[in-house]
Amino acid sequence: MAERTKPPETRTETAARLRHLLETEGEAVHAHVSVSNLRREQAYEATDDIEALRSEARSIKEDAIDRLPELIETVRGAVEENGGTVYVADDAADANRYISEVVDGKALPDADPSVVKSKSMTTEEIDLNDALEDEGVDVYETDLGEWVLQVADDTPSHIVGPAMHLTREEIADLFNERFEPDEPFETAEELTRFARDHLGERIREADVGITGANFVVAESGTMTLITNEGNARKCAVTPDTHVAVAGVEKLIPSTRDLEPFVDIIAKSATGQPISQYVTMLTPPTDSPTLNFDEPDAPLVSAGADGESADSSDAPESDREFHLVLLDNGRLDMREDEQLRETLYCIRCGACSNSCANFQAVGGHGFGGETYSGGIATGWEAGVHGQDSAAEFNDLCTGCTRCVDACPVKIDIPWINTVVRDRVNRDAEPEAYDFLVDGLTPDAEGGGLDLGKRFFGNVGTAAKLGSATAPVSNWLAETSPVRALLERTLGIDRRRDLPTFQRESLVDWFEMRGGAEASRQRAERATARTSGADIDREVVLYPDVYTNYVDTDRGKAAVRTLETLGIPVSVPDLPESGRAPLSQGMVATADRQASRLYGAVAEDLDAGRDIVVVEPSDLAAFQREYERLLPERSFERLRDNSYEICEYIYGLVENGADAELLSTGSDAGDGHADDDRGEPIAYHSHCQQRTLGLEAPTTALLERCGYAPQTSTVECCGMAGSFGYKQEYYEVSMNVGDRLAREFERAETVVASGTSCGDQLETVLERSVPHPIEILAPDR
Amino acid sequence: MTTDTVGRFERELEDLEVGLERVPAADASERIASAIEAPAVGTPLPFEGVSQPDSVMTEPTNGDVASARTGVTPATFAIAEYGSLAIESRPAGDEPISVYPDRHVAVVAASDVLPDIEAGFDRLEAQFAERNSVVFATGRSATADMGDLVHGVHGPGEVRVIVLEDR
Ligand code: SF4
Q1: Which Gene3D superfamilies match (chain A) (predicted)?
Q2: Ligand 1 mutation target, pool A351, A355, A380, most atoms within 8 A of CB
Q3: What pLDDT digit, counting tens, does each position of A390-422 carry?
Q4: Domain boundary among A409, A426, A443
């Protein structure tokens, strides 16, 4: 692991750096990636068997990484038999040295060797251009985006669209200054023509073409290059020497295994059905090389035209091919149970595109030395070391929207959680630890960032806050306390703090008679309405926020269930582990998961349904618990836990009477008529969407006479603790503002998550309840 | 393949702004001649009874390739669902001739228009076993790197497809 070379940024420094990116690059990045994200969604929807395709792609990668050492030998055999060379480079220096030697040997006497390149993040990872230039080699990027960066001396802000942070005007200014054209460049068309001609010449003169490879078929030595411009085709075919640089993880066993990847990569990257050029080269290829220095020489030397019978034993090819397979930490990642999945990544950028924080700041903020976006945490930790990952890892809020996007189904949020945990454990103990010690019954070592430790133990703080409310609320809003909270815990003083309720939901429920009274209420309701007799019982999970802060939505949930004839209990249950998970405190979360499961095991045995109001807690039960509980326990809880609106919708679908709920005004007599219903703006919760649970709420709202308008923004920007943190407050508000703009005109706005509601209340300056509060029957 | 498959191919190409013409083999030469913009270079067409028109140079020099406006090559097969052309890297130079000139005219037998990518990979398996190289080219070369979508970057900005309906 790399030594820390520079002191970590302070919160204020991080905030300033991100603010600068929001202002300078955010708009351009957002414009590009939000479109790609939308198109990706549409492309997935238009593909019948998309789930099967993603699963197939994943299982091929699982198998390939499993057999990696064997595949390296297979491809070596195949490429050598074809007449090429394979070099497995241990690290960046090794790869650069090898490639420099190959290039050096190709120059004409008295001339500097020249290289043309097509886009390759792997060569960015090893800083190949610098290494070659140090040796006196002229290097030209031929992908237009990469070339713009080369001219600007800038770095990629996205793994697929490396120059997307620059606007056309900025590129035009740059080119006008650098190339001083007679007529200044203005349009994209003019810039593209100039680039094509300029780079076309470089390609014709080049001694060596260097490309990456998206996939390498081990059995035949065929490599796949995917581009829209066609530059990789020219770089590979024109010079007589071709060097392909690829991470070892690009190997797949057979031609058949290539099919799902060719099918899916453009869909996930840009939403195109297929990219313009899928070049599948088995080098050295049969294509004649093009020697533009000799314009009068025939393209095809005599006797080698396509029809000649002797093409199988054609004259010795004048082509030379080197496949450089890069390890640079990958084989260690393969041995690392948690990072291994990163190697399945096909670098499509879908995780970046689907990420609200990435959309706001781009890859220069949400990225490390080379890679950017959610998966970059895994890549950077693996190839450059944990420190590079630590610089941006906290920008992943665990919203999970990338989980639906990733074509190989990588659990990207989990990789971020694990790396955060490792970073936490490596940190030095802080001076203020004593401040939170009493509040933090966690299972973490010293040295954990105080703010993280506080938010990871937020349940304990909330309990205390509630017990001492309203004094705690008054105190918390005083400026000395806000200053202290900011200095010690990094809680931004501009952010409203939650208001704790003196009476928790659990206490309220007990006061009104507990489970027994609830049973009677439910029975009376059933008798009164002669509604469907649905024989279910519910345990309503009192998550931290519903229990101590936003008790109204919990009460609404209880009333709604009872009205539909369902008896409820609200026991004092342990925390779910969501809070520590979001801070990378895996051991604490693990302990809480076990406690929670122990506490509900009897209810599960008794056949009760666990109903959850806060989507992020449900997501813990249904996603992360798979890694924290024994398989059977996980499955039992997953299969018997429900989001509140999903559950109510299920009841209604099974005969419960929707008219007992508060219906939209347009419904009049309770029958949703032909009119579209009463407009309502609904922001589902990010993790709820990933669980596929936005639709049941929307459907329930429709059943009840509303016409929900859903948000297109992936996440509210608040994301639990994220929006409270001083260094991220402005990013959070930037994301929140986009959401607010969608809902500005709406009369009623509802949101499923606490943080989403808080964020919307802040930016819209109005009350934003949970949908269940709108739907709950009038008292 | 069935006319349906060619129809699907045609519709996909339309979305990609690529024109498709169906012609009998006997008329192919003449139709190619009218689809090109001179100067044109090409590779031999491996379809019975079809040859390149006189206006297409089939034994070009390097300089001819550099200055050609049109390149004419066969496509080994095509994939209807995506409108993709499979161009093989033959020693005759199909790869450079299909990528360098600004216009690419591809000639494909109707029987080689395959319905989907799966059928395409059935053919590729045999190709790669022979250590061949193939490019799936779909539509026109494009980039948005300069701030707006522009066609004809490094590859052709114009593509035309001629389907030999009786081959
Ligand atoms: S992690 Fe998945 S979504 Fe992200 S770049 Fe890799 S393959 Fe694409």
Answers
A1: 3.30.70.20, NagB/RpiA/CoA transferase-like (3.40.50.10420)
A2: A351
A3: 899 999 999 899 999 999 999 999 999 999 988
A4: A426
Decide if B61 and A299 are in contact by the 8 Å CB cutoff: yes
CA-closest residue to ligand 1 atom 3: A406
Distance (Å) from the C-alpha of residue A236 to the closest C-alpha of chain B? 10
More confident residue, A328 or A451: A328
Q: How far is CA A516 from CA A509, A510, A511, A521, A562, in A?
A: 11, 10, 12, 9, 12
A149 → chain B, closest CA residue: B145
| pLDDT for residue A308 | 41
CB-nearest to A314 from B91, B143, B152 is B91
Residues 450-479, chain A, touching B (beta carbon < 8 A): none
CB contact under 8 A, B128 and A222: yes
Q: Are residues A566 and A675 in the same domain?
A: yes
Residue A430: pLDDT over 70: no
Residue A209's domain comprises 57-286+318-326
Closest CA to B6 of B58, B97, B89, B81: B81
- Find out whether the peptide bond into A615 is cis, omega within 30 degrees of 0: no
Interval B52-99: pLDDT, tens: 999 999 999 989 998 999 999 999 999 999 999 999 999 999 999 999
Cβ of residue A171 closer than 8 Å to a chain B Cβ: yes
Instruction: Read off the pLDDT band of A745 (50, 70, 90).
Output: confident
- What would the pLDDT profile of A124-161 be if each residue is shown by its tens digit? 999 999 999 999 999 999 999 999 999 999 999 999 99
A87 and A226: one domain?
A: yes
Q: How many Cβ pairs within 8 Å bridge chains A and B?
A: 219
Tokens in use for A149? 């960066």
The response to whether residue A269 sits with its C-beta less than 6 Å from ligand 1 reads: no
Complex confidence, ipTM: 0.96
- When divided into structural domains, chain A yields a total of 3
Is the residue at A33 inside a domain?
no
Evaluate whether residue A757 is within a structural domain: yes
Same domain, A169 and A101: yes
* Ligand 1 contact, A772 CB (< 6 A): no
Q: Which helix (H) or strand (E) holds B85?
A: strand B84-88
Q: Which of A278, A291, A308 to mutate to test the interface with B (most CBs of B within 10 A)?
A: A278
Please report the domains of chain B, with CATH numbers, ordered by start residue: 3-164 (3.40.50.10420)
CB atoms within 10 A of CB A36: 24
Residues A67 and A162 in one domain: yes
- Report how far residue A233's alpha carbon sits from residue B102's, in angstroms, rounded to the nearest whole number: 15
| Both structure tokens of B11 | 């519709």
Same domain, A513 and A395: no
Q: Which residues contact A273 (CB under 8 A, 6 or more apart)?
A: A43, A266, A267, B81, B82
Instruction: Please give the Cα distance from A324 to A93 (Å, whole number).
Output: 13
Are B155 and A237 an interchain contact pair (Cβ–Cβ within 8 Å)? no
- The per-residue pLDDT for range A577-594, each reduced to its tens digit, is 988 888 888 889 999 999
A722 and A635 within one domain: yes
User: Does residue A767 lie within any of the structural domains?
Assistant: yes
The answer to whether the CB of A724 falls within 8 A of the CB of A492 is yes
Q: Of B59, B133, B139, which has the smallest distance from its Cβ to A285's Cβ? A: B133
Q: What distance in angstroms lies between residue A330's CA and the mean position of ligand 1's atoms?
A: 16
- The reported pTM is 0.90
Pocket flag, ligand 1, residue A375 (CB < 6 Å): yes
Mutation site, B143, B148, B158, B159, interface A, largest A CB count within 10 A: B143
Q: Percentage of residues in chain A with pLDDT exceeding 70?
A: 92
Residue A293 resides in a domain = no
Domain final residue pick, A391, A426, A461: A426
CATH code (residue A370): 1.10.1060.10
Looking at residue A658, what DSSP letter applies?
G
Which residues of chain B neighbour A166 with C-beta distances below 8 Å? 147
Average pLDDT over residues A475-490: 76
Q: Both A273 and A362 in a single domain?
A: no
Q: Which atom of ligand 1 is nearest to the CA of A350?
A: 3
**Cβ contacts of A286 on chain B, cutoff 8 Å:** 89-91, 132-133
Q: Is the pLDDT of residue B117 over 90?
A: yes
The CB density around residue A333, as the number of other CB atoms within 10 Å, is: 22
